[in-house]
Amino acid sequence: MSYYIGVLTADQQNRIFHQLAKKSAVTNSCDRCGSPKFGVLGRMHLPVHDPLHAETTKDIPTVIVACHDCGHLSLFALEKLFSKEDEFVL
Ligand SMILES: [Zn+2]
Questions:
Q1: CA distance 1 to 64
Q2: DSSP three-state, residue 64
Q3: Based on C-alpha coordinates, what's the Rg of the chain?
Q4: Contact (Cβ atoms closer than 8 angstroms) between residue 52 and residue 61
Q5: How far, in Å, from the CA of 90 to the mean position of ligand 1?
Q6: Looking at the domain assignment, is residue 53 inside a domain?
Q7: 87 — pLDDT class (breaks 50, 70, 90)
Q8: pLDDT for the residue 16
Q9: Measured in whole angstroms, how far is the alpha carbon of residue 38 from the centre of its chain?
Q10: What sign does the CA torsion over 43, 39, 20, 64 have?
C-alpha cells in the first residue's frame, strides 16, 4: 500500500499551522527533539479499515507536520481543524 502525499501551497500551510496553534496542538518546537525547525509538510488521505466489515474502508483527510531536524511526523485530521463553514478545500 502506498500513500500519496500532496503538496500544499504556502498559504494553506500557514492557515493549517495557524489553526493548529489556535487549538494548542503545536508548540514552538518539535515534541521529540525540541528543534524550532518544523512545519506543515503536506496532506494525505489516511485509509481506515473497519475490522468488522472488511470491505468497508474510509479515509481521513490528514495533514502532516514534520520536524526538519529529527524527522518526527505528526498527523492531524483536517475535519477537526476546520469547521464546515470554512472554505478550506484540499
Ligand atoms: Zn525533531
A1: 18
A2: strand
A3: 14
A4: no
A5: 26
A6: yes
A7: low
A8: 92
A9: 13
A10: positive
Confidence at residue 74, expressed as pLDDT on a 0 to 100 scale: 94
pLDDT tens digit string along 27-72? 888 989 999 999 999 999 888 887 777 777 788 889 999 999 999 9
- Segments of the chain assigned E as strands: 38-49, 57-67, 73-77
The residue whose grid cell reads 515534541 is: 31
Domain residue limits at 15:
10-81
Q: Measured in angstroms, how far is the CA atom of residue 48 from the centroid of ligand 1?
A: 27
Tell me whether residue 33 is in a domain. yes
User: Residues lining ligand 1 (ion), CB within 5 A?
Assistant: 30, 32-33, 35, 67, 69-70, 72
Q: Does 1 reside within a domain?
A: no
Query: 81 C-alpha vs ligand 1 centroid, how far in Å?
Result: 22
Residue 5 lies in a domain: no
The total number of structural domains that make up the chain: 1
Cα 74 to ligand 1 centroid, rounded to whole Å: 11
